[in-house]
Amino acid sequence: MGTATGIIKALNSGIKHLAVKRFTLRYPEQKLKLIGDGYQYDPTSGVGIAGYKGRHMLFHDKCTGCQLCAIACEGVAEAIAMVKVQEDWKQNKKAIMPQIDYGKCVFCGLCVDACPFYALYMTNDYELSSFTKEGLIYTPAQLQVKPEVQQDAEIVFDKRGATHG
Amino acid sequence: MSALAPKFRFSYFIKSILDNLFWIIILLTLTGIPLVMILLFYLELPVIGGKLLDPYLAFTTLADPSRQIPLLKSLLQTEFFRIAVFPGFGFAALIAAGTIFVERKMLAKLQLRVGPFYCGKVEGILQLMSDGIKLLSKEIIIPAKADKPIFWAAPVLFVATAAAFIALIPAAGGGWVVADVDVGLIAVFAVIGFFPVITVLSSWSANSKFPFIGGIRALHQMVSFEIPLILSGLGVVILTGTLNLTEIVESQDPYWWIIFLPIGAIVFFIAMLAELERIPFDLPEAESEIVAGWLTEFSGMMYGLVQLGSYLKLYAFAALFVVLFLGGWSGPQIWPPFPEEIITEGIQMGPINAQFPGLPLLDQQMLNDVLWFVVKVVGVIFFILLPRGVFPRVRIDLLLHIGWYKLIGLAFVNIFIALGLLYAGVLGPEGIL
Amino acid sequence: MTTQLPPGLQIEKVDEKIMTLNVGPQHPGSGHMRLIVKVDGDYIVSCDPDPGYVHRGEEKMAEHRNYITNIPHLERPVIHDSCNILYPYCLGVEELLGLEVPERAKYIRVIAAELNRCVYTQYWLAIYGIFLGHSTMFMWPAGDRELLIDALEKMTGARVTHAYFVPGGIRNDVPANFEEMCLRRVNYFEKRIKEYADIFYDNPILISRTEGSGVLSRNDAIRLGTTGSTLRASGVDFDVRTKEPYDVYDELDIKTNVLKAGDSYARSKIPWLDMLESCNIIRQALQKMPKSGSVRVKLKPNPKGGNDEVYKRVESGRGALGCYIVSRSKPEPYRLKMSVGSFRNLICLPYLLKGEKLGNMPAVYWSLNYWPVEADR
Amino acid sequence: MSTTPEQTKPVAKAETKELPKFEKSITDKLEAKFASKVAIEFVKPTRIRVKVAKEDILDVAKFIRDELHFDHAESVTGVDYPDKKEIEVVYHLGSYTDPELAKQILALATGVPREDDPNPGNDSTKLASLRDIFYSVEFHERECFEMLGVYFEGHPDNRRLLLPEDWSDLPPLRKDFKLKGR
After folding, report:
1. Chains adjacent to B (≥3 CB pairs closer than 8 angstroms)
2. What is the count of structural domains for chain B?
3. Do C136 and B390 touch (CB under 8 A)?
4. Where are the alpha helices (DSSP H) in chain C?
5. CB of D73 within 8 Å of any CB in chain C?
6. Which residue in C19, C61, C60 sits closest to C42, CA to CA?
7. Digit-coded pLDDT (tens) for B165-221
8. Which residues, other chains included, contact B116 with Cβ-Cβ below 8 Å and sequence gap of 6+?
9. What would you report as the CA-atom Rg of chain C, rounded to the nearest whole angstrom?
10. pLDDT by residue (tens digit) across A56-114?
11. Which member of A90, A107, B53, B196 has the lowest number of beta carbons within 10 Å of its beta carbon?
12. ipTM of model
């Protein structure tokens, strides 16, 4: 009779879960809330600051064109290329800045770790899809823009199970 | 990037629609109306209100809606209506479509997810329709070495057999059944016997390994579970003394056979799951072992037809279970009686006072029967669907073991219970109850 | 084998009664590999696993990248278990470079590794469920996994490919109030996975079809060099976390789950028991973790190892995961070899499937806790 | 046993400190049995590395299994040394049955001659298979054969495992197989 009780227990468990709340995150309408403003790195202490590893953000007033990020990426994805910019900064005599190809980037964040001048951070923006491959290449001017994200869904626990509230 | 044709012009689009419209009107008037006349000449026309329904009368009813009521009433009595609409194909297809939707939503709820959600605004009720359109628009690919005629015929035969099965199921009292035959139950089992044949034919004709294994599995499974299915139905026949399904239903007043024959009902239910290839007995379609079993090579609407057939079959089996064990359509009268005014005068709808005497096309008793029948069928379908979320698939040797050792044994126990009840004089044609 | 053919190729004779099934790579029940299964009726005569469809030469690639840039691509073989697959590599490089990891980083590593083990095991369990035709067991673990992915995402900044462990610690410290957030998710997760018992592990239909199928005896398990859940289901008490503790596993109280049966039911139950144990470990680690402190040793750019070699191993979701690094005074490893649990367990497959029924094939195959991408590297 | 200066270095380092006792006892047993046939390359806590000539590998492996109770191979690694004209095959052996040895990994290394123009299976890069002694090396040796071209004599199944069946280039883990762009 162990079989019969087992079958009844399984059926009971199944029926019981008809009343539990759905857990699905309805993605385009809801977006998960991510922690912080994105992954950042503090070169003086050598430790990063927790955050989502999304699209990069480049601070033009801090970038010196040292190519350390491109060198770091060489062994990983070869996604960063240094391109000429029509800007005149005193710390950036060569006037070159990173241009990132998100068709290749693996979002490991090692380029952020490599930057000693607080110039390259990552942000919470992960919706980078584009109709063309060229659209995935972000120029320094595009990387300068701080993305606007509306992410507010969080996992909520209550008596009838967890949901994305 | 654009999905439209490169030389798309909106004016051309409008023009093409107008062109089509023009030709449709021309062809309809030139061929359609004469065709209707010819058909009306050959058809045996009903007598409406003492007059034969000729084309003139048919056209005049269009002018006065109240004169259409006798026409509709006579239509409800025709064979065609029974086959195509009410206890037959249309009704079953509607319930099958509902079953598919309920299955997906219920399974999703059990699995803590949403299920179909976006198509049709409200919880995805139009999902099935969109799936159907998708299947219709898909290319039908036939394997190069397939035996083409049989391969083509198999899905059609599958649906046809399922429809034949439905034809034998009575849905309400007063003769609401397509084929009211005296050997109803035997006919049902005879029709069920076609399914393994069709399955094996289709899988063999596909000339492919995985469908072949699936077909052989389906053959094993269906043949071995038909025996307990028939034997467990036998208990009811012993107590009722008839094979006619309508009479079986009428014999269950006021006690349903499930009260006296619970073992038979359980055996019938399990054998039914196996016949339907539902989890936990979906071995012929076990996708992790043999891709999709005997459905592997079907594509497009051929697959859609097989799915339609299998859900029609599901409805038919659920209805058969209701007829045999749950008292069919019998139940307390809960459908409210029609007010006198509706029958004699017509409907009072706001400012419009329509005078349609004799309006309710169907009587109160029949609607009540159908209501109970549908409620019971839906309940049984729920229990057919539930195991899909709860149980894993069994293995072929365990399945055959269940079929040949346990279920047949239990079916015989059920027969002895029925015989005991009969000879003790408790039940049966001359029983106490 | 005929002598005319080059080694590696051979002509086989085919019996009329035997049907050869190519299970994979497009078959829904195989993963990224092919099983050449020969069946006689419903019985499997022989099974020849043919992996390599996702071989990407991680070992060769590692010889051309330095110790830091190796991190993102070495986790690719098992992105669901990316912390654990980087663990032996980081331990090995730390030994080569003589780094001392800060105490807090060690605890955070253990938490991340255990969370990741649960994430991997849930994914594995989901596929085991669907292989047995149990669709609820596909959806539940795949959904509940989200709780821990969310915790890991808040910790590491990525949902699956974390690239979190580096030689000398971890990339970044955990965010504020991480402990409370993690604890709540882990507690709810534990409650949820206990509910799997009724519907899956105690389900009589599951027991009847997996018990006694694909039995691996204790001696065979040792002889074939299996590892992880496959080994422990056969009655061998071996878990690298307790036998050779790394980082702070020796300070935590860990119970090793061992079952005697050695069939696919026992093999599938061990990872589930391990997940419950992982929840315990995470709770202990959260309690004992130093509340503040450094988490990473600062490295020079392009660090060089000496003329040395190390072999480090950890317990991953699929068993012992060893990393053998040969260093020849260069910034890149001279040779890097990953001895992965999946590859070591693959060897049992031909022995377990011989004489089994075809219906048992997915159950036995996936119960080996085998991950095709990891085995191919 | 000829050892190169590169490999003696770790040994010299280890000898300055006191060697771990348990691991030393294992190597002592090996040395007592095989004397100069085995070269103990290093003894570190929980790790031992032993190098033998390729002719002696079967005897030593049998001794390690029967007397020292290492019962399975964790990995088989081939390392290519083009300048020494040698491919080194390293067996990492562990033990499940002996609880004392649970921590220990014994690396049994041997060298096979390397040919500049390899013809896998038909040249001098051959080694006796340990498959009959440690059953678990079966797939590892198949991988080693395709990746480095070391043919294992006595192995029942020397087919390709991970590489495609029609691979006709150099064995890819040899150092002269160059990656594009590197």
Report:
1. A, C
2. 1
3. yes
4. 58-62, 70-74, 82-97, 103-131, 135-156, 178-194, 196, 204-210, 218-223, 229-233, 240-243, 264-288, 341-346, 348-353, 361-367, 372-376
5. yes
6. C19
7. 888 888 877 777 887 888 888 888 888 888 888 988 888 888 888 888 888 888 888
8. B101, B104, B105, B108, B123, B124, B125, B127
9. 21
10. 888 888 888 888 888 888 888 888 888 888 878 888 888 888 888 888 888 888 888 88
11. A90
12. 0.82
Chains touching A (at least 3 CB pairs under 8 A) are: B, C
Residue D4 lies in a domain: no
Return the CATH number of the domain spanning residue range C58-376.
1.10.645.10
Q: What whole-number distance in Å separates Cα of residue B221 and Cα of residue B127?
A: 32
Quick check: C344 and D103 CB within 8 A? no
**Contact between chains at A22 and B390 (C-beta distance less than 8 A):** no
Whether residue C131 lies within 8 A of chain B, CB to CB, comes out as yes
User: In chain B, what residues touch C21 (CB-CB under 8 Å)?
Assistant: 209-210
Mention every residue, 6+ apart, whose C-beta is less than 8 A from residue B30: none
Residue D79 belongs to domain with CATH number = 3.30.460.80
Fold designation for A24-164: Alpha-Beta Plaits (3.30.70)
pLDDT at B55: 65
- Averaged pLDDT score across all residues of chain D: 79
Instruction: Report if residue B321 sits inside a domain.
Output: yes
**Res. D12: pLDDT tops 60:** no
Of C8, C326, C347, the CB nearest to D158: C8
- Nearest of C189, B109, B264, B388 to residue A11 by alpha carbon: B388
* D89 found inside a domain: yes
Of C69, C147, C161, nearest to A155 by CB-CB distance is C147
Residue B388 pLDDT class (50, 70, 90 cuts): confident
pLDDT at D8: 44
pLDDT at position B25 is 93
Residue D1: its pLDDT value, please?
A: 40
| Long-range CB pairs of B412-416, under 8 A, 24+ apart, other chains included | B412/B231, B413/B263, B414/B231, B414/B232, B414/B235, B414/B261, B414/B263, B414/B264, B414/B267, B415/B231, B415/B234, B415/B235, B415/B238
CA–CA distance from A55 to each of A90, A111, C158 (Å)?
Answer: 26, 12, 12
For the residues B354-361, what does the mean pLDDT come to?
63
Q: What is the pLDDT of residues C188-243, one digit of tens each?
A: 889 888 888 888 888 888 888 888 888 888 888 888 888 888 888 888 888 888 88
- Domain assignment present for residue B209? The answer is yes
Domain that holds residue D105: 9-153
The amino acid that residue A46 corresponds to is: G
Whether residue D149 lies inside any domain: the answer is yes
> What one-character-per-residue DSSP string does B2-19 give?
-SS-TT--HHHHHHHHHH
Tell me what pLDDT residue D175 has: 84
Burial per residue of B329-367, b for 16 or more beta-carbon CB atoms within 10 angstroms, e otherwise: bbeeeebeeeeeeeeeebeeeeeeeeebeebbeeeeebe
> DSSP H helical segments within B193-208, as ranges?
194-205
Q: Does the structure show a pLDDT above 90 at D24?
A: no
Task: Name chain A contacts of C299, Cβ cutoff 8 Å.
Answer: 46
Q: At what angle do helices C178-194 and C103-131 cross, to 10 degrees?
A: 30
**Residue B72 falls inside a structural domain:** no
Q: What are phi and psi of D169, to 5 degrees?
A: -85, -170
What are the beta bridge partners of residue D107? D49, D92
The set of chains that have 3 or more CB pairs under 8 A with C is A, B, D
- How far apart are the C-alpha atoms of B273 and B275, rounded to whole Å? 5
Cα radius of gyration rounded to whole Å, chain A: 23
Spatial CB neighbours of A160, under 8 Å, sequence gap ≥ 6? A19, A20, A21
Q: Is residue D165 part of a domain?
A: no
- Is residue B110 assigned to a domain? no
Question: Is the pLDDT confidence value at C305 over 90?
Answer: no
Q: Cβ separation of B394 and C209 shorter than 8 Å?
A: yes
Sequence spans of domains, chain A = 24-164
